[in-house]
Amino acid sequence: MNTSLKWIKDMVPGLDVSIQEYMDAMTLSGTKVEGYEDFSRNLDKIVVGQILNIEPHPDADKLVVCQVNVGADEPVQIVTGAPNVKEGQKVPVVLDGGRVAGGHDGSKAEGGIKIKKGRLRGVVSNGMMCSIEEMGSSRDFYPEAPQEGIYIFPDDAVVGSDAVKQLGLDDVSIEYEVTSNRVDCFSVIGIAREAAATFGRPFCPPDVKPTGNQEDVNDYIKVEVEDPDLCPRYTARVVKNVRIAPSPEWMQRRLAAQGIRPINNMVDITNYVMEEFGQPMHAYDLDTIEGRRIIVRRAKNKETFVTLDGQERILDDSVLMICDAAKAIGLAGIMGGENSMITDHVTTMLFEAACFDGTNIRHSAKKVGMRTDASGKFEKGLDPNNAIAAMNRACQLVEELGAGEVVGGVVDVYSKVKEGRRILFEPDKYNRLLGTDIAPEQMLAYFEKIELGYDKETNEVIIPSWRQDLECSADLAEEAARFYGYDKIAATLPKGEATTGRLSYKLRIEAVAKDVAQYCGFSQGMSYSFESPKVFDKLLLEADSSLRNAVVISNPLGEDFSIMRTIPLNGILTSLSTNYNRRNKDVRLYELGNIYLAKELPLAELPEERMQFTLGMYGEGDFYTLKGVIEEFLMQVGMHKKPEYNPASGKPFLHPGRQADVMYEGDCIGYFGEVHPTVAANYSIKDRVYAAVIDMPQIVEKSGFDRKYTGIARFPAVNRDLSMVCPRTILAGDIEKVIEENGGEYLESCRLFDLYEGNQIKMGFKSLAYTITFRAKDRTLDEESVNEVLDRIIKALETKGIELRK
């Protein structure tokens, strides 16, 4: 929906605000402004000038030299090539240093085109005379403008006055995002009412006065509505002695600001009222209506009709038609027919203002393949009570513009009068809903500004029929909130008997697992909980393994789905196998799924269900990549102690030298490693495969989301490197544990940076080198303090059979 700001200000006296203030306030009060177009944005220093004298250019046949009065002490000299200039004409003149919106061919320039004093073929030109295209518009909106040449003002234009204002370009077209339930705001009156309420100004809609002569319109036309469900109201009036002429300048300017091309007084009146009241209207040539009867009926199947655009439309019985006694003359709510169109020779005209079923109009417009401005309004469901007001306004304009003689009376077929509704006024409920403390009197004042009534006896708010969006107490609370100001409502927690909804702790841990896996490049997979007993052999499980004690399905789909899984690896390896055999490279998958462990067989009670976080990958990455993912997960769920790894895991489906149990606080919380080559071959994978399984119930038990942060270190760190030799059977983790246990409060970190086994190290031993970092929180460490701690670490290492490398 677009409106002219000047048109709004005409209905809201005293609305003296900038465009930015208007946009911000209207958006905050619920009428969202999407943007605007300032017609004068690129126009500057343009005045009305009068041509005093014209002389030929001494050195160019197609140029003339004009002396132009611009209201200054002396006339200015302007050289032009416009073919339509004559002495005495009043024209728009851009002075030296001014700007125009575009070129004479209608091309636009960002920021406009600056006009400077210069010479044209050796003759000084102190400005420029403008065409309507150079002013940023076109002949579509200024039909009186010449096809080529400069624009000519009427004789009453004041020399030296603002040409932009004279042309009506001192206006702003504002674009709104109006929701479909606010049908009243698809009109200038509706937007103006909202603006008046928003800025606390009076609202002055047009004063519609009675019109018509002493005749009776029922002597001219009869109306019959066969389907009142699709046409709840149809009003008609007649205008005789019609005089087709251009509409007045003020109406043309308002229509142009709305983006509507002026045509003639009758067409412009219908368009003007449609924009002003939001009620589409249509005009017929009464002399073409046979039998002087209007019949509103459904079309017949495969009936054809030629619309005003000259296109033949094929209809069915769901489309509503406007017909006379012999033929169809219009598609209801969409477009009139070619056979009853208004021409320059019309003498008696029928005005139609009706209300049609919005859903039917939308479906009909789609079926016939055309959507018009009228159908766009009708399909939202108009207020039938608005039709008669729009009709009377159109007839008032006909009389005011001298466009014809309005016949007295109105034909009004209104099957079921639509009444407004009433909603109980409950201010305490509104305040609880909004978290505010607005006084009831203040709420009623807000309601009064938007023309909602109040019945004190019944304590009810009276909703007019044009506010179709107000149906319950929550809607009234919203009305109070938007005028009180959403920006004034403080942020509060919701109140109620129920607790605030959130994920359970278990689900929060699982969400972290998903986030970490996806961050590390793993895609989620999902596999069946039903498996085949053959899985155990593929995974090389011992015959007496407890994992073979699976729950058997009593009515399985087949042998391949006959037991409940006790280990999650089959599903992830099967998915990896599918990807590998489809030549997908560098695949990483994860799954969060249950395993089912029977407490005894046959079952006496339900098996234990344990959620397992399973990771699997091949391609880029190795054993340590998977180890890093596990450590990242443990850190994210608040398990800040360093996990330990037991290489004596003993899992038959993992490589015997490349596997480990994950230990935390002495408990095994999972395992990981390279999949045994035989197992990989069983799944048709000819690449190294890595897998990890984390037991989620233990993670839930040991994790925590409490975080304790320490400040940035204020004192420098001290680094020491230790190179040591130890038996190959001693793990790097065991060495790090000794360093951490003896490092005391000054130890900040220890990092392995070198591992060597070779000729310079005796057989069965290895060399490891660590960087150990010390730092005190309250002072700079001296050499003596660091050496004391370092000696303690070295002595502890020596007790484990570890020697410093000489």
Characterise this structure.
With 806 residues, the protein is of the alpha+beta class. 25% of the residues lie in helices and 27% in strands. It has 20 helices and 39 strands. It has a seven-stranded mixed beta sheet, with helices on both faces. Strand 3 and strand 4 (64-69) form a beta hairpin. Helix 6 runs antiparallel to helix 9, helix 10 crosses helix 12 (473-484) and helix 13 crosses helix 18. The longest helix has 16 residues, at 783-798. The model has no long low-confidence stretch (mean pLDDT 91).
Share of helix among residues?
A: 25-40%
For the termini, the CA-CA separation is 86 Å
Radius of gyration: 43 Å
Task: Output the structural class.
Answer: alpha+beta
Question: How many strands, what sense, and barrel or not for the largest sheet?
Answer: 7 strands, mixed
Number of helices in the DSSP assignment: 20
Average pLDDT? 91
Question: Tally of extended strands?
Answer: 39
For the largest beta sheet, what order do the strands appear in spatially? 27-30-31-35-34-33-32
Strand content: 25-35%
Shape: elongated
- Which runs of at least 5 residues are low in confidence (pLDDT < 50)? none
